[in-house]
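Postdoc handover notes: sequence design on the structure in folder B. Input tokens:
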């Protein structure tokens, strides 16, 4: 049980860093199809997905 307590212990001296995800051309992404909006621009099909729903 002692091991589990140490596993979840927090260190107040550490700083949390957030690195936002940035999709780039050619990247693979997982998302729910119902979360996307399909648009056609100049005869090209695109899916618009909110960034918070990308995995």
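Designed sequence:
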């Amino acid at each position: 049980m002692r091991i589990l307590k140490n596993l979840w212990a927090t260190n107040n001296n550490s700083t949390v860093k957030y690195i936002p995800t940035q999709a780039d051309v050619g990247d693979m992404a997982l998302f729910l199809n119902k979360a996307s909006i399909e648009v056609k621009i100049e005869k090209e099909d695109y899916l618009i997905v909110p960034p918070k729903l990308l995995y």
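Context for whoever picks this up: The mean pLDDT is 78. Don't rerun without checking with the PI first.
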